[in-house]
Amino acid sequence: MPNLEDIRLGQLSVAQGLCQPLEVEECLAQQHKNEQNGGNDRLGELLIARGYLTRTQLTRLLNVQRDAEQAVSRIGPYELIRKLGEGGMGAVYQAKDTRNDEIVALKVLPRSRAKDKIFLQRFEQEARAAFELDHPNIVHGLDVGQADGYHFLVMEFVQGSDVYTLLEQKGRLSEKEALQILEQIAAALGHINEERLVHRDIKPENIIVTEQGVAKLADMGLAVDSEIQGRRRITQAGIAMGTPFYLSPEQIEGKSEADIRSDIYALGTTIYEALTGRPPFEGETPAVVMMKHLNEQVPSPHEIDHAISVNFCHMLERMMAKDPAERYQTPQELLADVQRVKQGQVPQGKRPPSGRSSVARPQDHRDSGKMILGEKQTENLERLEPMMAQNSGPHDSRYGSAVRARKGVSHFGVPAVSARPRATQTVAADPNVKLAILVGVAVAVAVLAFLLVTVFGPR
Description:
Layout lengths: L3 H12 L5 H16 L6 H7 L5 H17 L2 E2 L2 E10 L2 E8 L4 E8 L1 H4 L2 H16 L8 E7 L2 E7 L3 E3 H8 L4 H20 L2 E2 L8 E4 L4 E3 L6 E2 L23 H4 L7 H17 L9 H10 L5 H4 L5 H10 L11 H12 L34 H15 L11 E4 L11 E4 L9 H26 L3
Antiparallel strand pairs: 1-2, 2-3, 3-4, 4-6, 5-6, 7-9, 8-11, 9-10, 12-13
C-alpha cells in the first residue's frame, strides 16, 4: 500500500505544479497492483517511468520533503510531538502547548497551500466551524493562529481510533456497535443542523471512537452554511466536494442545494461499510464510483449477514435514498428511528420505493448492481472525469477491484498503512445473465465455425 511518504510526495508534486492529480492517482493504482504481484516500487520511480517527472525533478521534490520534515519541531507555542496523519487540508500532529503543558491536536496548513486563497479560506472556514460547534460528539476547536510562516488550527486531542482503523483491526462491526456510532454521530449532525451548517465529508476516517466508546465527528474542512447565500459558502455548483466513496447523488451532480440530508446519506454509507466491511460502491476511478452512487444498488446488509436485522436495513435504505426528498429530512427524525431499532421495533419512517435507494431491499437483492437511473450515464461519466481531475488528490487513491487500500489518515490516531480485504458479498446469480452468457457463447461458436469453413473449406 502507498505509505505516508509516497502520499506526501504525490501531494507535493501536485502542489508544485509538476504533476496532475490523475497522473498521481494512476501511479498509485499501479503501485498497488505491483505490490499484489510482489513488487516494491516507490511512487517517485513510477512517476519517472511514465514520464510525469524527470530524475532531477524527483530529487528536488525529495529534498524539499526531507528539509520540511526535519526543520519543523515547533510552531509558535506548540511543540510538535509526532505526526498523527495527513490529508487534503494539511498534516495533523500531537503537540504540547508549552504555556500550560496541555496535549492538543495541531492541524497545520502546508506553506505551499497558504498562497491559495480558496484553500486558505477552507482552512479558516474549518476553524470557524470548530469554534461554533460545541457538542460532546464533535471534536472541539481550541485555538487558531499563524506563526513561523504556518497557519494552524488547535483542537482537542482525542485518545482513540477512527472507524477506518477499527475496520482494519476487526474487519467489520456488529450491529450493536454500528448502532452506537450511528446514534452519536446523528446527534452530532443534529447540532450541526441547528447551527445551519453542513459537514459534507462524513466518512470512517472522520469519526473517532474513544476508549470509552464515545464517537466524535472530526474535520469540518468542507463544512458550509446551509443558507443558499450563506456567509461561509465557498464551493460552486458543478464541483463535487467530499470523498467519492461517501458522496450523495446530489453532491456528485454538483447541486448547490446539498444540505443536511447529504450528510445523512454519507453517514448511511459509512454505517453500511461498518456493517459489511466494505464501502457500498467501489471502482477503478473516482468517476466510476460516483456513477455507481447515481445509478446502482448494493445488496442489503441482511443478505450478506442474516444476523443484521431487517429493521436496521430498513433504516439504511431510507438514509441512502437517491432522492433527498425520500431520506430522513432531519437528524432528529433519524434519531427517533435509531431508538426504535435499538428496541427491536420497526422504523416509523417511510421506506423509499423499491429501486430508489442505493441499498436494495432484501427481496430485491438479485437486481442489485444493475443500472436503475442510467438515462444519462455516458454524459454524466464524461462530466465527472474532468471534475475529479480538479478535485481529487493523491490522498484519495483508494480504488481497486480486489482490495481497498487503507491509508489510515486519522487525525487522532497512529496512521495505518495496510490493506483490508473486502468482505465477500454473496448475491444469487441472475437467470437472465446466465441466459445472456449462453447466447453469447453460442453466437461466438457459430461465427468461429463460419470463419473456419470460409478459410479452410473446399474452393
